[in-house]
Write a structure and sequence with these properties.
With 242 residues, this protein is α/β, with parallel strands linked by helices. It has helices at 19-28, 45-49, 76-81, 92-97, 102-114, 127-131, 135-146, 171-188, 205-212, 229-241, and strands at 5-9, 35-39, 55-59, 86-89, 118-123, 154-157, 197-200, 219-222. It contains 10 helices and 8 strands. Bound molecules: 2-phosphoglycolic acid.
Length: 242
């Protein structure tokens, strides 16, 4: 059975002052029976990981090399050293903004696994690809190209046009992609049916219940609505009750 996971992607938001939100989430997670992960910006990782409560912490990116002359980058080992146990890889903001290819994402995923981190590998089509009827084809190609050999990963399907826009695919569209991802994971890995497939893109307290009711949706990767405990906690609760 895939694990139910509510993951928050803080992106480049937050300072020390915002640790109180993570603290509230960590304390409440005690009574909510689904895995909660917060991926804060790198400078908050260590403090966030030191908070009491059953909250896992993740990075938002890592370099594919273990160490070396890569100014401004962070390695998987360094994330783990801060207390992270997950890392988001191949987010569309990195694929688009920094030209990250499927093979680079795969190399980063291998580096993450080597340091004991579980990669959260993001996939998703553009608006143009969706309108052109190519969403499934694009997402499956990204999956094949980005997956490391090891099955210890989490997949996040995030249509680019749904991220931060308030637009969400309809239930049938989400189901179609998640079913296709599940079938492909099953075909590649003996344990493919156990890999969690998260949906991401404008998940809010108001739409979480409907999204979590979809077969093969095992949780969410949440951006904006993960920044405040009052928004993220209802999403965590909807997931636990789904
Ligand atoms: P959003 O972002 O929830 O703000 O749409 C999701 C993401 O980019 O992971």
């Amino acid at each position: 059975m895939p694990q139910k996971i509510a993951a928050g992607n803080w992106k480049m938001n937050g300072t020390q002052a915002n640790l109180a939100e993570i603290q509230t989430i960590a304390e409440a997670a005690q009574d909510i029976h689904s895995l909660a992960i917060i991926c804060p910006p790198a400078h908050l990782l260590h403090s966030a990981a030191s908070l009491p409560g059953p909250l896992a912490i993740g990075g938002q990116n890592c370099h594919h090399a273990p160490s070396g002359a890569f100014t401004g980058d962070i390695s998987a080992e360094q994330l783990a050293d801060c207390g992270a146990s997950y890392v988001i890889l191949g987010h569309s903001e990195r694929r688009e903004g920094y030209g990250e290819s499927d093979s680079l994402v795969r190399d980063k995923a291998r580096a993450a696994l080597n340091s004991g981190l579980t990669p959260i590998i993001c996939l998703g089509e553009s608006q143009e690809q969706r309108v052109g009827g190519r969403a499934i084809e694009v997402v499956l190609a990204q999956l094949t190209g980005s997956l490391p050999d090891d099955a210890e990963v989490i997949i996040a399907y995030e249509p680019i046009w749904a991220i931060g826009t308030g637009l969400v695919p309809n239930v049938a569209e989400i189901a179609e992609v998640h079913d296709a991802l599940r079938a492909q994971l099953h075909a590649i890995f003996a344990k493919g049916q156990d890999i969690s497939i998260l949906y991401g893109g404008s998940v809010k307290p108001s739409n979480a219940q409907e999204i979590f009711a979809i077969t093969n949706v095992n949780g969410a990767l949440v951006g904006g609505a993960s920044l405040k405990a009052e928004d993220f906690l209802p999403i965590m609760r909807s997931l636990a009750e789904s």
